[in-house]
Amino acid sequence: MAITLIEAIFPEAKGWSTVFTGVAKIVDEILLTFKKDGVHARAMDSAHLAMVDLFIPSDAFETYTVMEETNLGIRLDDINNVLKRASKNDKLSISYEEKSNVLSLKFIGQIKREFLINLIELSENTPAMPKLPIEVNAVIIPTALKEAIKDIGTISDYAIFEAEKNVFYIKAKSSRGSVSLEFTKESGYLLEYEIKGDKKVKASYGIKYLEYLTSVADDAVSATLGFSTNAPLKLDYKIPNDVQLTFLLAPRGDEE
């Protein structure tokens, strides 16, 4: 008789759909590691420009049992095709049996629906999370950040993040024109703001990737930007049910 290594129930199936749709913007496949403290996943995109780091704590689940640490490789298209079939009030039941090649996903609602997703072999060499030199930390309303990136995209294919003592700017300039968005605590969109030192901090990032990174903004509780001059961007999201989703994005070296 096969031993069930993983058995868990998440209160909102739609929450998993939000998270994994965002992850799929960066990578096609990912290794989910089920540990006693929760579900971990980290991967880098094929161009080595962006990294995604996911943690769903065990406390976020209604029930969570992991007999032993287990690594499961999944194609994100496969899991997302299933998760998008979740109804608004569905719970998500997750289970995996020892030496099985499938992950069971059940929607618990008016009708119980079970889907079996075929697993894939993936390397267990998870990339290390780099320690970044953060000079600016800004907690911003997620939807405001998403709309700002859309505004920048009308003018340029990259955005300049610029921080001064009490003001955070997102700017762009190209042959089409220029645009500047100003965020302050007084505006209500910048919730917390900290900058180290008195010097201006400035870095630029590609719009296409920023659009990927802000795709989860509508469902996020908060977004925290961390960056330094000409250094990678760290974008931390808090998702409902204490889900933590972090993106890293390499800077662009050329500014117009």
Automatic annotation (TrEMBL):
Gene3D superfamilies: 3.70.10.10. The keyword Ribosomal protein does not apply. Residues 6-110 form the Proliferating cell nuclear antigen PCNA N-terminal domain. InterPro entries: DNA_clamp_sf, Pr_cel_nuc_antig, Pr_cel_nuc_antig_C, Pr_cel_nuc_antig_N. Residues 147-251 form the Proliferating cell nuclear antigen PCNA C-terminal domain. The keyword Metal-binding does not apply. Keywords: DNA replication, DNA-binding. It holds the Pfam family PCNA_N. GO terms for molecular function: DNA binding; DNA polymerase processivity factor activity. Belongs to the PCNA family. Homotrimer. The subunits circularize to form a toroid; DNA passes through its center. Replication factor C (RFC) is required to load the toroid on the DNA. Sliding clamp subunit. Responsible for tethering the catalytic subunit of DNA polymerase to DNA during high-speed replication. This is DNA polymerase sliding clamp. It comes from Candidatus Marsarchaeota G1 archaeon BE_D.
